[in-house]
Amino acid sequence: MIKNTAAQMSASLAKGEITSVELTKLHLDRIADVDPKVKAFLHVDGESALNQAAAVDADRASGKKLGPLAGIPLALKDVLAQQGVPTTAGSKILQGWKPPYDSTVVAKLKAAGVVILGKTNMDEFAMGSSTENSGYGPTFNPWDLTRTPGGSSGGSAAAVSAFEAPLAIGSDTGGSIRQPAALTGIVGVRPTYGAVSRYGLIAYSSSLDQAGPFGRTVLDTAMLHEVIAGHDPRDATSINAPVPAVVAAAKSGDVKGLKIGVIKQLQGDGYQSGVQARFNESLEILASLGAEIVQVDCPSFEYALAAYYLIAPSECSSNLARFDAMRYGLRTGESDGASAESVMNSTREAGFGREVKRRIILGTYALSSGYYDAYYGSAQKIRTLIIEDYKKAFTQADVLVSPTSPITAFKIGEKSEDPIAMYLADVATIPVNLAGICGMSLPAGLAEEDNLPVGFQIMAPAMQDQRLYQVGAALEAALVSKWGGHLISKAPALGGAK
Amino acid sequence: MALSYDDVIAKYEPVLGLEVHVELNTESKMFCSCSTTFGGEPNTQTCPVCLALPGALPVVNAKAIESTIKIGLALNCQIAPHSRFARKNYFYPDMPKNFQISQYDEPICFDGFVDVEIETDEGPKQFRIEIERVHMEEDTGKSLHVGGATGRIHGAEYSLLDYNRAGIPLVEIVTKIVPGTGKYAPEVAKAYVAELRDILRGLKVSDVKMEQGSLRCDANVSLRLIGSDVLGTRSETKNVNSLRSVERAIRGEMIRHAELLNDGKKVKQETRHFQEDTGLTRSGRSKEQAEDYRYFPEPDLVPVAPAAAWIEELRAQQPERPSLRRKRLKEQWAVPDKEMAAMINADALDIVEETVLLGADPTKARTWWLGEISRIANEKELALTELSITPKDVAAIVALVAAGELTDKLARQVVDGVIAGEGTPSEVVAKRGIKVVNDDGALMAAIEKVCAEQAETADKVRNGHVPAAGALIGAVMKETKGQADAARVRELLLGHLGQASN
Amino acid sequence: MSSLSRDEVAKLAALARIEMSEAELVNLSSQFGSILDAVARVQELNLEGVKATSHPQPMENIFREDVVQPSLTPDQALSGAPAQEEQRFRVPQILGEAE
Ligand SMILES: [Mg+2]
Ligand SMILES: [Zn+2]
Fold this sequence. Notes:
The structure holds 3 protein chains of 3 kinds. Chain A is built from 16 helices and 11 strands. Chain A is α/β, with parallel strands linked by helices.
């Protein structure tokens, strides 16, 4: 049962073949079984999950009309506030903090009857591409426990690929949903900026952050997408428009006559051969399904990484200023006669990890008087050029595609001493964030050289998220029939799977 | 060496710059839905947004935008077709996010002016204060310092924070530098703040209570040698909390700067704090290493682009400018300068105007409000508007007197009754049985009775000593319980005693 | 080749309220050269006349009505406080500046 898709679980629940309490127990058992190896979760709240499940079962028994995901378990990235449940964003500075409020995403999940199993590990404050920057230790890739699951939503991606949960929520500031989805062989979507409320999402970079769904299939991911998306008056950057029909698109999966643009700048040098091979193969499949493949040119993408590593650190240097030991979270250095300022200094020294400090310092520098125009100001202008590149490309194609990550899952520790090498992991995902559009990663197979999953990235214009699912579903169906099953079924067993 | 003010202005010209912070009187805070009510229990008006809990996001209060545009229009400003919020980054425990959402290079209103008039040696003179910008921001929380002397921050062991005020909408009004005021700099500054206060009150966008901090003034002062065009170093005196203090603080700073300069010392660019008790300023934070605020556009908020039609609608709703209104009322009511000033000082202009609009004679309306009613208000330590007597009541009383149904003396009793909550003037008249005695027969009976009782005095009057009649009139009034018309009593009495009555 | 001296890093750390050991300052200063080189690429293009984008969606005038909603209870507001007294957040002495 736990290897089924969420859609299948939903059908079983509806037919009464299983209760949500039973389904939740199966997943809690699986977590107890494999999470000591995978370390996807920071906090599992079995009791509260079973209570939620029991409530859904009761509602179902009383004949109440339930949404399709009612009673389905889910893993929640620890970056989202959940009332009364420890929420740390992977940082020591928030150890033990229990929010007195629910994020909008959590409120929507609860309203839909989704059962929240617990909070998943992540790079501290979502800063990283490997989940090694967590203040609580790394998460391990279920495909190879010596490798990272990517990041920053590595815990969520690992939980789904290790069958600890059929669905998960992540957040994507520079690729933090799509890259771990690629590295763990699952589906991950970064919705259009403003499509999912950021209220209660602990901010890393406000103009880039967006929460989104993970699933093992395109349809599952769409079902979760539909639950969490929608306008929220508590987020002033939330788009007031109907949610795109993503589930319908995932069910149709037709690409006949669709133009698919391959971005010249997001391939070639630096892309692993197995990654490039799977990507090209997927293009051929899409062409065989009736899509027209065109080449598009996005020259300013070459500067996307540089712009991102100015904009995100700048915004984070300000967003993370609130962690100051005054109102919540860690407080250290409170010796006799210590001033508020020295307590702030010592708490932030003790509570923040290396990468977070590095980005805060970089952002402080980029915003400081005398450097603003050269760094932050220029980066914001590059952002305009990237938006223009996309605009032009979308006049030539309905969706754009690239490999999600230039490389497959890398070894733990391999890049952690070299920030620049780590930053390159997001080279293909970052342009989407800078432009505020939407993107999906879905499994394109395994790279020959290391037998690890490769992700195929699809990008669509703002609020055209349904196109991702339409193309994704078509490609997925063709690949699944070619492989004789979902890619994830090829993942190695981790323990006594039930 | 202590300098006199005359010494200072003989040698130096002051250059002013004024920053006024106004708390708007919206129901909810600038970026969240917490109440703005003053004086609540600590931390009862806070939420994830104004406590800066992780994940919380700001959303702009529409009313605050409207109020700020109204202020900008009243100060003759341009309204920006496109403006943005920015983050001003600095750490301070009373500011939960450790940045203030403010506006930086794109304020919502800019380039305005206010004209103020003051008395000079050469008569009334007008000064134009140019406005650089009007922008929106948010207030901070309140700290209570524990363990030090007198609750001050210096020497305190620790502090206690209440964030009820954090996030209250603030509007900051910044002038361009104001040169050319010469020795009148303190008066001009005071007149400017007073004019601002009146304008804001007329717009009904703020309580403008300096003593409660809803209007706060920071005064920048520098001196330059007369004839020089090189600006001196300025000091910035914070939170000057009354009109009188504005004047005192500027005068004091001018003298302090001049003493330093005369001694060949330098004025430090720093923040100073005005001391109500001494009228002097005390050194605060030095600005030698200017704080780097790292302003950048607030990414959680989108630009403000007020529609031109909306701006015109707000422009059309602008109330009359206070200075013009004062001039108009003074002429319409034919009020002498001194009485006009008294009315303005007593904050009675609105209430008197309302009374006049209800049909009362302007002089009568003014006399009632500034006389008897003000006296009672003072006694009760209440503002005129806080008494339970309304312009409608006063207009009714004036009408009753004009109709001869009340004497002035009786009218005072009616005023007392209304203020005591006994009802409308006619209800008080009825309940208390107040009535002018118009019956000459009844009056004559009283007069005869009094003249018999005080035969000696009556004889004096009979013999032509008219001033002695006063005592008899008083006695008759007493006899008729004050309900008689004193003029009629006098007429009848003098006639009775064989004297002419005029 | 860009660089950021140890003293510059120290100044930034102070601005950002992060205490740093001598070793950290030196380490970060040595790393910053290559990071700054990487990000300085944004200056390679001629950006004259290009508008800055600070927000990816072209939105404006998003406001809320001036209506009061319930606040947190003081217990909730103070639930994360490292120290509290008299229903207020207790913080170490604030030095330097009077209000
Ligand atoms: Mg200000
Ligand atoms: Zn609030």
